[in-house]
Write a structure and sequence with these properties.
The protein has 93 residues and is of the alpha+beta class. The protein has helices spanning 53-61, 68-77, 79-92, and strands at 3-9, 18-24, 35-40, 50-51, 65-66. The longest helix has 14 residues, at 79-92.
Length: 93
């Protein structure tokens, strides 16, 4: 099973709102997902996305691949850097 961290749309017509979820890559965009990691309102910008850092790090550690848009949000929050740092710490032990 290939897990992706991606956006799923829940907003109304012309009023987008997204959940950031961990989902099997075979499922549809707005279909089933494994766990919700956060939310994103595009009217506020990517730096205002609400992301549960612990859940994001957990799924990245389990091998989930973020989409390009989610990767940008994780980078803006510093989560990608923390994940890379944790990988370096594990390797040095």
């Amino acid at each position: 099973m290939s897990v992706k961290i991606r956006l799923t749309r829940i907003g109304r017509h012309k009023d987008p709102f997204y959940r950031i979820v961990a989902a099997d890559s075979r499922f549809t965009r707005d279909g089933r997902y494994i766990e919700q990691i956060g939310t994103y309102d595009p009217t506020l910008g990517t730096d205002k996305a609400n992301i549960d850092e612990q859940l994001a790090l957990k799924w990245l550690g389990l091998g989930a691949q973020p989409s390009e848009s989610v990767r940008a949000m994780l980078s803006a929050k510093g989560i990608i850097a923390k994940f890379a740092e944790s990988k370096v710490k594990k390797g040095s032990k």
